[in-house]
Structure formats: structure tokens, C-alpha cells
Amino acid sequence: MTSHAFRKTAATIVDEAALSARLIADQLGHIRPSMTQDVAGNGH
Question: Rounded to whole angstroms, what are the CA distances from 3 to 6, 18, 20?
Fold first, then answer.
């Protein structure tokens, strides 16, 4: 599993756990929650 795939899997798990976008962004090291949402929403 690549590091990108691992991050995507982790993001999916915490998103499905209904955590806030801010918390998810913080965990993934994203400055803005919108970056997390953009990445998660485009299938990459």
C-alpha cells in the first residue's frame, strides 16, 4: 500500500465516523478543511 492510499483510507475512515471536517483536516495535516473535502471528493 502506498502512503497516498494509506492517507486516503484513513481519511475515508474518519469521514465515515462523522468527525468534523476541521478535525479530519488537522489529522491529515491540511491547512484548510476545504482541501480535505476537495481531495476526498475527487476520487484520488
Answer: 5, 23, 23
pLDDT digits (tens, 9 = 90+) for 1-26: 898 888 888 888 888 888 888 888 88
pTM: 0.57
The C-alpha torsion from 9 through 14 and 17 to 18, rounded to 10°, is -130
- Whole-number Å distance between alpha carbons of 4 and 18: 21
Mean residue pLDDT across the chain: 78
Q: CA 2, CA 32: separation in Å to the nearest integer? A: 24
DSSP 22: H
